[in-house]
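Chain A, query sequence.
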Amino acid sequence: MNNASILVIDDEAQIRKLLRITLESNDYKVTLASSAREGKVLAASHPPELILLDLGLPDESGHAVLKELREWYTKPIIILSVQSGEADIVNALDNGANDYLVKPFRTGELLARIRSALRGIAHEEADTTIDCGNLQIDLAMRTVKGNDESVKLTGTEYALLALFARNEGKVLTHHYLLKEVWGPGYLNQSQYLRVFIAQLRKKIEDDPNRPVHIVTESGVGYRFVAT
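Chain A, predicted structure.
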């Protein structure tokens, strides 16, 4: 993925400098953060295609940051850490990291891991059919079937459902959904989301008052569940 944007969250100035030089020389767009707080703000305000995350941050555990990011961020996260114990690696991967590199690392290997992670996004996007139990979503044809019958959706309803289906099982925040479907200018227009969620539930749920596919996570957002 040429010109992909990468956010580096690392408190070591030398590592940040090395990563900026290495990544920019390979045509990536780089943003740097030296703390957990700064990294989370940048990730939310300008979501990158990939995040490089250090576990040893000064203000918060990198494991905690990873868990928080994975509540809404669905693209690759690669851990860069001096922590080389199996428990740390397994914990990070279990909590949603796509890959793990122990410092010091070879820049060639890091670049290869980044390319692999970004290719994974492309493969997911190229998958044209998503089967969600009694729902079948054909991304190439932009069609939806429920219980083997065609479901007619508006363009916005379809975009919202496709986003949910690609992130099955993950909690998507209100802001994330608004940004992805309507754009950054609609982050405070939560009524848009409520209206379209209600419309979608009427069309895809057997009982819209007891939804099993689009589940509300109170105060946070929604989770799409395949049953």
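The mean pLDDT is 86. The helical segments are 13-24, 36-45, 62-69, 86-94, 107-126, 155-166, 174-181, 190-204.
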